[in-house]
């Protein structure tokens, strides 16, 4: 059996690694939730790279239908072909195009399938896939063909919890909630991105970053990807650690809303002089 | 075998099903947990709990069931406590060879004996017992290639019971007041059932018609498709006793603005009289009468306020809290008119529900509107209430009672 050990370019917590392996062993999809920017999508890439398997990505949009993942029957093309008679239109199978799920089933080896942001789609979407995910097979009525997975794909599903998923769907999944990384883990993550970063700069930047994140009133808390961008800006700008200690250069890389920047500004620049009232919600 | 755990989870309100319970046992039968309680904690969590808001309850149920369980993890801990780290041991090649000749069975036997006799306390050096820096077959930082290493470096996980005790996910529990994102999620449930048009469906009749006119040259006509959206009206209490909650209400407001397509909002102070305001400072007002006449009645209405006021503000003519404001109709009547106009209407209260019974004005308002707490759970419940049309039932009951 495949055992996922992680890859060098992706820092993974032991419990997530365990859950990945449980999901592989049980052959059930792994549902990953977490704050934006905690590396949900990258997990699938890392699993595929770590196990040396091909990765299929099915990006979900608000208009995506469950059937599109299985196959699309291109009737319009067939209709067009029928007009000129330059192709044999009696063979329907040439107009059946497999979707990402169909391709993953049809692959000759085990693959990793990422269903990205499943909550974007209609509320019925996950329900429509229940049977396919259970049986790992589906039927195409147009050609009378049944596509069965030759090797059960490793399915990773990510969700930003914009919509709730239905209970029957959840029952079939293994669930993991990626917590926001603590300072120690974050240091590791940053080191993956910038191995040569100055230690002092990183320490000061992280201090500021977690300080900002503690503001409960923020409309949008900065996430890992914003931290990485910010550090990039600091490195390119040649900002010394001392400056970061005293002020917040390039705050625009961390905070994307005007109101948020104001909250931080009003709290005073120094690390230690914040007013607790604007900082935490004293309302309960 | 630990079926108690299942029922304990249930009693804490974690929605676990038999399906998931069996999956867990399947995982255990494959020995995915490596016989360790810590791994079991993580695996059971991922298999049984499908929403982070239940993690805290899971932790509590886990503590209830497994608090007193003796595990090998625990034994390790005890041994480690007795050990002290000393300088690493240097051995000659000869000695190393001697040690290598020991076999594993012997070592394991020795280990068990040591355990029984409790020889491990504060043991440093030595050749046989559990200790540090020695040549014995057990312990850490010592030298014995065939030996058992106990807890050298750091263990990969923390102990399960300790993790559970920490209850890291307490804040994810659903009855804590919410942040913007969570509000958006809750409000997005409102986004249903109002058709807003957007092209994508094939209009068959028009296509045939056009194609015929084109002498058989196919021309496709796309029809507009229904998209889900919602109509929401937000009435917010500002000023006075609501000031501490202004940020919270503000957040609800900003979440609603981005989440809902047809969104209207008005402000009031404590109670609604003949005017409602379009801005927070209450400068620009419109007549409540006009408003009630003009709006569609299929708006979903959410009133946010603490409903904490003197009963006279509800029942008296000229009872308004602002001394310059005169109302010839009591607030309660205005509330009832609002109730009669809109079918789906709820009241969200930032005060905790347990305090509602002690405030007279809240009790009075609860007679008119269904009231929910302004927390994630309350908002969710309230939205569900609006969506299922239960408000109509409430209204019908109310009308029957009063007539």
The chain-level mean pLDDT of chain A equals 81
| Strand order in the sheet with the most strands of chain A | 2-5-8-1-9
Oligomer: heterodimer
> For the record, what CATH class of the largest domain in chain B applies?
Alpha Beta
Name given to the CATH architecture of the largest domain in chain B = 3-Layer(aba) Sandwich
Structural class of chain B: alpha/beta
Contiguous uncertain segments of 5+ residues of chain A: 270-284
Short summary:
Chain A is built from 14 helices and nine strands. Chain A is of the alpha/beta class and 284 residues long. In chain A, the strands form three sheets. In chain A, strands 2-5-8-1-9 form a five-stranded parallel sheet, with helices on both faces. Chain A has a two-stranded antiparallel ribbon with strand order 3-4.
Structure characteristics:
heterodimer, A: 284 residues, Rossmann fold, 2 domains, five-stranded parallel beta sheet, two-stranded antiparallel ribbon, 43% helix, disordered C terminus, B: 403 residues, alpha/beta, two-stranded parallel ribbon, flat
Explain this structure:
- The complex is a heterodimer of chains A (284) and B (403).
- By secondary structure, chain A is of the alpha/beta class.
- Chain A has two domains: 14-178, Rossmann fold; 183-279.
- Chain A has 14 helices and nine strands.
- Chain A is elongated.
- Chain A starts with 13 loop residues before the first helix and ends in a 5-residue tail after the last helix.
- Chain B folds into four domains: 3-72 and 157-172; 86-149, no CATH class; 197-228, no CATH class; 231-402, Rossmann fold (3-Layer(aba) Sandwich).
- Chain B is built from 17 helices and eleven strands.
- Chain B has helices at residues 3-11, 18-29, 37-48, 55-66, 72-82, 93-100, 104-117, 160-166, 180-188, 204-213, 246-259, 288-294, 311-315, 331-341, 360-368, 376-387, 390-402, and strands at 138-139, 148-149, 196-202, 222-227, 231-237, 262-268, 275-277, 285-287, 300-304, 344-349, 371-373.
- Chain B has a five-stranded parallel beta sheet.
- In chain B, helix 4 (55-66) crosses helix 8 and helix 9 (180-188) crosses helix 11 (246-259).
- Mean pLDDT of chain B is 71; it is low at 84-88, 120-158 and 193-198.
- The interface between A and B is large, with 40 and 42 residues.
């Amino acid at each position: 059996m495949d055992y996922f050990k992680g890859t060098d370019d992706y820092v993974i917590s032991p419990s997530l690694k365990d859950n990945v392996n449980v999901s592989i062993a049980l052959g059930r999809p792994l549902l990953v939730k977490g704050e934006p920017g905690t590396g949900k999508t990258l997990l699938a890439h890392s699993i595929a790279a770590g196990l040396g398997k091909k990765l299929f990505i099915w990006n979900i949009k608000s208009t995506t239908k469950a059937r599109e993942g299985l196959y699309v029957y291109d009737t319009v093309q067939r209709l067009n072909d029928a007009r000129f008679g330059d192709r044999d239109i009696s063979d329907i199978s040439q107009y059946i195009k497999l979707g990402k799920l169909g391709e993953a089933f049809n692959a000759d080896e085990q693959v990793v399938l990422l269903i990205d942001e499943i909550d974007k789609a209609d509320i019925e979407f996950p329900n429509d896939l229940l049977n396919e995910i259970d049986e790992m097979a589906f039927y195409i009525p147009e050609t009378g063909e049944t596509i069965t997975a030759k090797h059960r794909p490793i399915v990773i599903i990510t969700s930003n919890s914009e919509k709730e998923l239905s209970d029957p769907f959840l029952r079939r999944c293994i669930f993991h909630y990626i917590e926001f990384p603590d300072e120690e883990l974050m240091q590791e993550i940053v080191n993956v991105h910038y191995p040569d970063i100055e230690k002092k700069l990183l320490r000061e930047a992280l201090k500021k970053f977690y300080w900002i994140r503690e503001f409960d009133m923020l409309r949008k808390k900065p996430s890992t990807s914003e931290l990485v961008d910010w550090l990039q800006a600091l490195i390119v700008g040649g900002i010394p650690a001392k400056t970061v200690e005293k002020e917040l250069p390039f705050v625009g890389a961390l905070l994307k809303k005007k109101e948020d920047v104001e909250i931080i500004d009003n709290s005073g620049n120094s690390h230690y002089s914040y007013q607790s009232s604007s900082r935490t919600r004293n309302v309960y | 075998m630990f079926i108690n755990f299942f029922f304990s989870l249930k009693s804490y309100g974690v929605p676990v099903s038999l399906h998931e319970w069996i999956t867990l046992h399947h995982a255990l039968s494959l020995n995915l947990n490596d016989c360790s309680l810590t791994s079991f904690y993580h695996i059971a969590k991922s298999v049984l709990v499908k929403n982070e808001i239940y993690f805290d309850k899971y932790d509590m149920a886990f503590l209830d069931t497994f608090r007193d369980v003796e595990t090998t993890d625990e034994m390790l801990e005890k041994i480690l406590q007795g050990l002290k780290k000393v300088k690493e041991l240097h051995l000659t090649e000869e000695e190393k060879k001697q040690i290598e000749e020991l076999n594993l069975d012997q070592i394991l036997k020795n280990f068990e004996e040591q355990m029984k006799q409790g020889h491990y306390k504060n043991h440093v050096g030595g050749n046989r017992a559990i200790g540090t820096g020695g040549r014995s077959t057990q312990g850490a930082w010592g030298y014995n290639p065939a030996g058992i290493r106990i807890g050298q470096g750091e263990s990969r996980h923390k102990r399960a019971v300790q993790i559970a005790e920490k209850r890291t996910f307490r804040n994810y529990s659903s009855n804590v007041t919410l942040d913007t994102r969570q509000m958006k999620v809750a409000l997005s449930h409102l986004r249903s059932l109002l058709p807003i048009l957007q092209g994508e469906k094939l209009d068959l009749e028009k296509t045939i018609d056009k194609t015929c006119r084109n002498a058989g040259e196919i021309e496709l006509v796309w029809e507009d498709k229904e998209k889900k959206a919602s109509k929401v009206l937000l009435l917010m209490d500002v000023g006075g006793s609501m000031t501490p909650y202004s940020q919270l209400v503000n957040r609800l407001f900003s979440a609603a603005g981005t989440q809902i397509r047809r969104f209207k909002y008005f402000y009031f102070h404590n109670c609604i009289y003949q005017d409602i305001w379009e801005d927070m400072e209450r400068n620009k007002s419109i007549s409540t009468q006009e408003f009630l006449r003009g709006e569609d009645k299929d708006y979903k209405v959410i009133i946010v306020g603490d409903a904490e006021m003197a009963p006279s503000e509800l029942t008296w003519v000229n009872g308004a809290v602002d001394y310059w404001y005169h109302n010839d109709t009591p607030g309660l009547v205005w509330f009832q008119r609002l109730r009669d106009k809109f079918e789906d209407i709820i009241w969200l209260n930032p005060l905790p529900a347990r305090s509602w019974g002690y405030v007279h004005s809240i009790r009075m308002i609860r007679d008119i509107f269904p009231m929910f707490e302004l927390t994630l759970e309350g908002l969710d419940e309230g939205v569900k209430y609006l969506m299922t049309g239960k408000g109509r039932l409430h209204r019908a009951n109310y009308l029957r009672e009063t007539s």
